[in-house]
């Protein structure tokens, strides 16, 4: 089977509110930046394009189709879409290339989350019979998960605050992030609870923006003369939509995906974890089997800026770019979809 | 609970989500001109196609459409439908004609009404002009144009509708 490489990644500034800009206007700059960084003039330079977005965020059916206006799709291109994080658009593209139907692909994800009431918009992604009619919002569900974890002794409120502290501190080195700065654990714990046991800083900010990436076969990357990071393992697993049927304090699907992706087959220098809520980073880190030798979320992670439908792709892009820059030899990127870490993808990336 | 219950076969689960819609930077510029009674398209710097209403990008080339091009009130019927079925709350009484219209100088059509003509006489290639509402009624909407009506001009050959002059 042919090996697949990530050759470029571009991310827009992560904004609380992109104002008058529409989705196409958010996508165009990152798509051209990712293509140009791969030495490509336009989208005709790749064999396949796949995007990730969610129509509920725009409140319009088939809104993702309009996103194609940002590409320049004449002559017609081969194109697909996933109604979820663009990390899964990467997965589809990966399979397409593995199957020999393409040698290269452009992947992009986008969301303007600011126009709606995000936690309630996301509640419409729940199972439509039992949970969506209850208007169970994403923050309340995460709070329920945090409670399960604290009560079962999996983690503490102090550890959650440490995650926030590290995220905001690391984010100082990332020009695109939204929330950054120096905070002490004491200072964070002194904040009032928001939806108990979560404090506001345990929750991700609402963010607008887009990201794009170019992947290809290793042979193609060499032909293009580009430095690259190799995807040595990628796997995703999903758990029941029924919260009552899951142990929310742990993540079985991350454990399985990590095993299949080969996380433990070598030291992991860096990890990017797509944990929108602080306690979820603790759950995923443990499920990935990472110890303190691995640097986690050097970018600041989703707590510092959470681009819906590309925060997962962002994690993969962050790890790939650090490997390409020579800052790490082997890294793991995690992406999640659905409430309370329902669906998880683990990608292992290595230097060439 | 020994009593047999009837099977539940349906339930109501209404969804109400509120959004603050923004048209986008490019469309905002278009709507602002419409408020002034002007039809203004945006031109692709690469292929010179003019989009109206513009969404900010050339869908063919994937680049921003920055340059604005003011269009006249003249247009050509690219395709049309005669609507016989009434739409609830729509004040227009069927049968009426809704058409894809290609404004002169534009390369992308928009939908609008055709009136002041027998429906049976509407045809592809027919030349039409915009009839605007009174100035005090203008808002940021295509409804500033009441309808399009026929012009006393020869039909445009189908091959020429919306084509670049020198392409």
TrEMBL record, chain A:
TM region(s), chain numbering: none
Highest taxon of source: Bacteria
Keyword annotations of the record: Acyltransferase, Transferase
Thiolase C-terminal domain location: 256-340
Keyword Ion transport appears in the UniProt entry: no
Pfam families: Thiolase_C (PF02803)
UniProt-listed InterPro entries: Thiolase, Thiolase-like, Thiolase_C
A molecular function (GO) term: acetyl-CoA C-acyltransferase activity
Family assignment from sequence similarity: Belongs to the thiolase-like superfamily. Thiolase family.
Name of the protein in question: Acetyl-CoA acetyltransferase
Organism encoding this protein: Sinobacterium caligoides
Lineage, highest ranks first: Bacteria, Pseudomonadati, Pseudomonadota, Gammaproteobacteria, Cellvibrionales
């Amino acid at each position: 089977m042919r090996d697949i490489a990530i050759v470029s990644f571009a991310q827009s500034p992560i904004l609380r509110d992109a104002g008058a800009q529409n989705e196409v206007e958010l996508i165009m700059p990152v798509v051209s930046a990712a293509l140009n960084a791969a030495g490509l003039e336009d989208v005709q330079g790749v064999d396949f394009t796949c995007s990730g977005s969610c129509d509920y965020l725009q409140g319009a059916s088939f809104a993702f189709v309009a996103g194609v206006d940002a590409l320049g799709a004449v002559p017609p291109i081969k194109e697909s879409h996933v109604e979820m994080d663009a990390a899964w658009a990467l997965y589809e593209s990966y399979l397409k290339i593995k199957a020999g139907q393409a040698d290269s692909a452009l992947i992009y994800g986008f969301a303007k989350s600011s126009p709606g009431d995000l936690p309630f918009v996301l509640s419409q992604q729940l199972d439509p019979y039992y949970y969506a009619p209850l208007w169970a919002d994403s923050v309340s569900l995460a709070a329920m998960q945090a409670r399960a974890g604290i009560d079962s002794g999996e983690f503490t409120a102090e550890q959650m605050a440490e995650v926030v502290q590290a995220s905001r501190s690391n984010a100082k080195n990332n020009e695109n992030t939204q929330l950054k700065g120096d905070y002490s654990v004491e200072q964070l714990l002194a904040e009032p609870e928001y939806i108990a046991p979560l404090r506001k800083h345990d929750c991700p900010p609402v963010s607008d923006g887009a990201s794009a990436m170019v992947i290809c076969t290793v042979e193609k990357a060499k032909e293009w003369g580009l430095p690259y990071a190799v995807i040595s393992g990628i796997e995703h697993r999903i758990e029941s939509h029924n919260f009552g049927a899951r142990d929310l304090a742990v993540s079985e699907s991350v454990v399985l995906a990590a095993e299949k992706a080969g996380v433990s087959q070598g030291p992991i220098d860096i990890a990017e974890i797509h944990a929108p809520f602080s306690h979820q980073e603790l759950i995923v880190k443990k499920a990935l089997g990472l110890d303190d030798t691995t640097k986690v979320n050097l970018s600041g992670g989703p707590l510092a800026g959470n681009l819906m439908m590309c925060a997962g792709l962002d994690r993969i892009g962050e790890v790939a770019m650090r490997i390409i820059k020579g800052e790490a030899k082997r890294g793991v990127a995690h992406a999640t979809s659905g409430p309370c870490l329902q669906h998880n993808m683990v990608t292992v990336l290595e230097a060439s | 609970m020994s009593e047999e219950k009837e099977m539940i076969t349906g339930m109501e689960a209404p969804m109400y989500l509120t959004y603050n819609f923004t048209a986008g930077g490019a469309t905002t510029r278009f709507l602002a001109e419409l408020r002034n009674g002007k039809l203004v398209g945006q031109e692709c710097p690469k292929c010179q196609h003019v989009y109206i209403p513009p969404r900010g990008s050339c869908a063919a080339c994937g680049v921003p459409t920055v340059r604005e091009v003011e269009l006249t009130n003249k247009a050509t019927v690219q395709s049309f439908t005669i609507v016989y079925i009434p739409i609830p709350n729509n004040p227009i009484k069927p049968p009426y004609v809704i058409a894809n219209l290609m404004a002169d100088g534009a390369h992308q059509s928009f939908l609008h009404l055709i009136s002041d003509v027998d429906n049976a006489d509407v045809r592809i290639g027919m030349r039409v002009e915009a009839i605007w509402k009174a100035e005090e009624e203008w808002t940021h909407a295509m409804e500033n144009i009441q309808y399009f009506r026929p012009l006393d001009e020869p039909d445009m050959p189908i091959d020429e509708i919306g084509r670049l002059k020198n392409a």
